[in-house]
Design brief:
about 60 residues, alpha+beta, 3-stranded antiparallel sheet, two-stranded antiparallel sheet, 2 helices
C-alpha cells in the first residue's frame, strides 16, 4: 500500500515513475469529447480528465511474446 500511495503522490505532482526493466507510470491528459447517447438520442459532453498511464518496458514486453 505504501508503494501505491507514493506512486500516486509522485504522479499527481507532475513527475513520472520509471522502474528499470518494468516500465513507466505517468499522468496522461484525456481531452474533452462528445459522445452520442442512443437511449436519449442526444449528444453529451464528457469533460477532460487526467488518468494514470503505464508504458511497459521492452524487457517486460519480451517476456510475454
Amino acid at each position: 500500500m505504501a508503494f501505491v500511495s507514493r506512486l500516486l503522490s509522485l504522479v499527481k505532482s507532475g513527475n513520472s515513475l520509471a522502474i528499470q526493466g518494468f516500465g513507466v507510470f505517468e499522468l496522461k491528459e484525456k481531452p474533452a469529447r462528445k459522445m452520442f447517447n442512443p437511449t436519449k438520442n442526444e449528444y453529451i459532453e464528457i469533460p477532460a480528465r487526467q488518468m494514470l498511464g503505464f508504458k511497459a518496458s521492452g524487457l517486460l514486453k519480451a517476456k510475454f511474446q
